[in-house]
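Troubleshooting: if your tokenizer reports a length mismatch, compare your output against this known-good record of 329 residues.
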Amino acid sequence: MTEGFKTDRDYFASYSDPGVHRLMIADHPRTNAYRLAIESCVSGKRVLDVGTGTGILSMFAARAGAEWVIAVDNSAILETACELAAENGLAHKIQFLSANAESMVLDGPVDVIVSEWMGFFGLAELMFRSVIHARDKWLKPGGTMIPGQFRLQIAPCDDVHVHQELGAGLWERPVYGLDFSLMIEREVGTPITAACDLGTASLMGPSVNVLNLDLHTAKYDDFFFTAAVELPIERSGRLCGFGGWFEVDLVPGITLSCAPSSQRTHWRQSYFPVRPFSAQRGDVVRVAMQAQRSEHGDDRLPLYFMNGELVRDDEVVHTFFYRHLGTFE
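Known-good structure output:
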């Protein structure tokens, strides 16, 4: 579960837990894609690793022939990263800095910035603001960002299991012989965006991009987006929510994707439940989606909003909404 962080101190403290790093490093699609991307472009380069954690990306860079690696983190795990680099004979090529990316002072610009900053649905944790600050201050003109491209996608879903486990489906039938249908209204009114595993068979149509950013030039405000998209329905069913995921092009030719059709990652997919409604092949779902800054203390989780309508034969036959309250599970 990814909970809100009331302060940056809480956020950085959460990354002192070895279990968090086990989860990330054990994610083979994630870690191996970063390894391949780093090995493809860092030889002879000065590399900055923002949010180094246990230092594995910095060690990949040092091992791949980087001239010098600067590994910055504001968590207590940095001490372990120093020890791991020494154990692996790479400490002489890595400078470890205990600092915020926003306040760190380097001895000069770098050729490459690498960071694994993505949270659930890409934006959770908002670590990208630190990466962009570091980029604007320390990356040489024409330097390389890893990842370099970022995309968010959504798709309409009909998945009974996910609807039962993470949506309002539990309340649609008697609960131990009792009528709990009133809870449907409570669930729809206060939805939680949850991580889930969607199969390709769960999708009622193709995904569409709601955000597409070049991370060499994107600004912090660009991540808080408004998108109006149309999603064609290619399979009739009961639309109970929207699956969301991100993709990043780490370097040209190496993509890390959380799509249902890709290898499972620890991010999985994100599920945005709505009040279920029937949709037919040939319908179009129009969605206006927004990601906004939180307004209530936790600035590490965006708020998400959707307004939508189902169009059949050029006529709106259903409307729906989604209001995210700043909590992920």
